[in-house]
Amino acid sequence: MTTDVSATRGRVTPGRGSGPRRGGSARGRGRRGDAAAGWLFTAPMIAILGVFLFIPVLMALYVSLTSWNGNGSPFGGGENARFVGLDNYTALFTEDGLTRETFMQSLGNNFWFVLFVVPLQTALAFFLALIVNNRFLRGKGFFRTAFYFPSVTSSIAISVVFIFLFANSGAVNAVLSWFGIDGPAWFSDSRGLFHIVAGAFGVDGTPAFAQAEVFGRTLWEWFAGPSVAMCVVIFLVVWTTTGTFMLMFLAALQDLPEEVDEAALLDGTSGWQKLRHITIPMLKPAFFLVTTLGLIGTWQVFDQIYVMGKGAPANTTLTPAFLSYKQSFTSLDYGTGAAISFVVFALIVAITSFQRWLLRDRDAAPRRRRRGLGLGRPVGSTTSGAAAEAGDRA
Amino acid sequence: MTARTPTWKLALFYGLLILFALFFIYPFFIQIATSFKSDAAATDNPLGLIPNPLDLSAWKRIFGIGGSAVPIMTWTQNSFLVAIVITAGRVFLDSLAGYALSRLKFRGRGFLFATVLAVMSVPGVALLIPKFLMVKYLGIYDTYTAMILPLIVDAAGVFIMKQFFDTIPVSIEEAARIDGASVFRTFWSVVLPMAKPALLTLTILSFQGSWNEFTHFLVTTQSPERKTLVTGLASLASGELSSGTQYPLKLGAALLTTIPVAILFFAFQRHFTRGANEGGVKG
Fold first, then answer.
1. How far is A209 from chain B (nearest CA, A)?
2. Domains of chain A by range and CATH?
3. Cβ contacts (< 8 Å) between A307 and chain B: which residues?
4. Composition bias, kind Gly residues: at what positions (chain A) (predicted)?
């Protein structure tokens, strides 16, 4: 990415590139009319992004400092939109109360969600990519299409299908009954996964060691794990995102130099050794890309939650992103809702920066430029350029 | 697996792989089959792929035959209207901006491009309340304008076009410019025709994105007349519009929502795969 930006700056970095600079008159000054045309061509973009993105974010930032209830103008002050300073933020973190309790629960829910989804989708995507990449596989196109198709359809439409599949008398429970398993009432079961496991070992209620409270919730509550209802959402999201990530791994796999393969073959390595010591280390950038995108996506989960119960049962599928919406548009507490959305924002920016920091050495090293379309993210642009090529080859 | 793998291993391998493929496609088969079942049959035999007896009442309701409380045809019209206008707008405006960022030299260009990159990394869910505030402030809440205008340019599309124009050699345009063609003329008649592959990718991605869009319409509209298939389906599914489970109706409506994108997908698969690798991923 870095190389790319500076290379296109042309005039700002004089003498860049090799070869004689052509006709100083025409190019050096920039053609007459270029400046005007440049601003004219970008004007719609600037206007739309400014009016519907930049200014609104500032507006929301102000609203997060008020107690606006949806009546009248949020900027007028008065009873409807009192300026409350950082109250909305402190209510989320430091004040004991319902707001903090709900918010902390949503954070906990989302944390478990991320902890399950990201490793699962990464592992499954990698596994499928390895298979589809096999040189001797027949029907490659069919399998790739089958795995990828769920990724392109509407998340709402897919969620509706899953509501049916996981209904009490639905397909999943029907399959489970073949094995003599009495499936749960998926969408109304609020028991945490780890609580269920603990219950199987005879731990009932809150054990003494887990009664300490952190942010208004006991450790026992924090360590509940995803509820049964949340497991359906986990399953759904893994199912719909795997295909996309598989393509990214596939692109990276196809980009591996063949000499490595041959060398490994000559050295007599087994398939497993090659995978562990050669393929996986060489795919590190792809793994970084996939986990970053996974982390960004999973902290924003919204559509599926909206359709599959809006936080029910017992708020165990509530996520901060959805809570921000619910707090604003249902509870008409726009100040708190906006504050939550900025916390989510900050969280995602923090995750991305952390990833970028992990990758800083890699970025500093000179990289091979790939042709054509890259990815507008700081991480792994090489991989995605390669991904674009794999798409072409497909 | 190599060329000399024994047959039983191959069989096992393909067996497993087909099982995996079924795991990804079977839900769609169930969806199609169930939309042709009666409410009772849908829950009695949720796995069955052959609707027996065949029941068309869900589809009749979807197409509004015999009157229906659920105006799915209105949603469909809205979906098409909004998706087509947004797609047309994006293809034109994104390539205009992308061309300027790639080719035209003006002060502030580097800054503009950096801004586009920054905008691409803003998490969408953080924009729900901001968009709502602005749309209210402008007095366009619950209008087609509010649904379309904010989405008519997107940073990711500008980025794709800019990257594409970077790969086209300058010499051809230079010739046109020396012949005295204006900047816009050069862009329109010389550059755009060369950009067909990128334009096609952008068209498909824009259509898919705006057709599947949910959160933006959720916060900028309210009335039933403005519902798209996606927002309408969401309210249908969360029980706002109906009583009882009505699985055939819901799955039929979900199928209707899936079909246009599915057709595009099977016709232009490689443009999707390319887009997936550039535009990032929805959660």
1. 36
2. 103-190+227-318+359-393 (1.10.3720.10)
3. 234, 237-238
4. 16-27
- Average pLDDT estimate for B100-124: 89
Give the amino acid at B257: T
Other CB atoms within 10 Å distance of the CB of residue B236: 24
Residues of B in Cβ contact (< 8 Å) with A10: 105
What one-character-per-residue DSSP string does B92-142 give?
HHHHHHHHHHHT---TTHHHHHHHHHHHHTS-GGGGHHHHHHHHHHTT-TT
Domain residues for B146?
Answer: 72-279
Q: Helix, strand, coil: what percent of chain B each, to 5?
A: 70, 0, 30
Which of B111, B182, B277, B278 should be substituted to probe chain A, the one whose Cβ sees the most A Cβ atoms within 10 Å?
B277
Number of domains observed in the structure of chain B: 2
Do B237 and A156 make contact, defined as CB atoms within 8 angstroms? Answer: yes
Q: What tokens appear for A368 in the block?
A: 């091979």
Mean pLDDT, chain B, as a whole number? 87
Of residues A53, A73, A294, nearest to B127 (C-beta): A53
**Per-residue tokens: A222:** 């924090």
The rounded mean pLDDT for chain A is: 80
Q: Are A362 and A347 in contact (CB under 8 A)?
A: no
Give CA–CA dist A350/A352, Å, rounded.
Answer: 5
Query: How much of chain B exceeds pLDDT 90, in percent?
Result: 45
